[in-house]
Amino acid sequence: MSNNKTQTYTENTIVVEKVEDQKLIETAFSIRKKVFVEEQNVSPQRESMDDEDAVHYLATVNGFPAGAARYRKMEKGAKIERIAVLNIFRGQRIGEALLLKILDDLKNEDKIYLYAQVIATPFYIKNGFRQTNNYFLDAGIEHVEMDFIK
């Protein structure tokens, strides 16, 4: 007996959008909590600091919540923060999709910067950032300030 079933593989659809609906913002927060609080042991208070002053983003893969990020307008420029991708979706360029969407939204800003976990610096360098000499510990994790090069 032969099996005539055909398997079709399709590309994943990644959608990144700025979210203003409270339910979608809560979904973004839950992703960040999973990544930063549960995986990296950042305190919930530290992780959610300044959320009310931020613009929030949610990434979905085939309609499933997969990643989140935010930015804030600061005195010295636009600061990208809290890029987080759920473990099961890592390696699918979701972090890059989030970053590129935010950079596009901020294209008219004079200065764009972020504080990267040192382990993630190659990702940011690949996407147009350069390291400064400002290294520091935040929530027990080594970070470095990085500037976007236009």
UniProtKB/TrEMBL annotation:
Annotated InterPro entries: Acyl_CoA_acyltransferase (IPR016181), GNAT_dom (IPR000182)
Which SUPFAM superfamilies does UniProt cross-reference here? Acyl-CoA N-acyltransferases (Nat)
**Domain N-acetyltransferase, first and last residues per copy:** 14-150
What is the name of the protein in this document?
Answer: GNAT family N-acetyltransferase
Species whose genome carries this gene: Flavobacterium azizsancarii
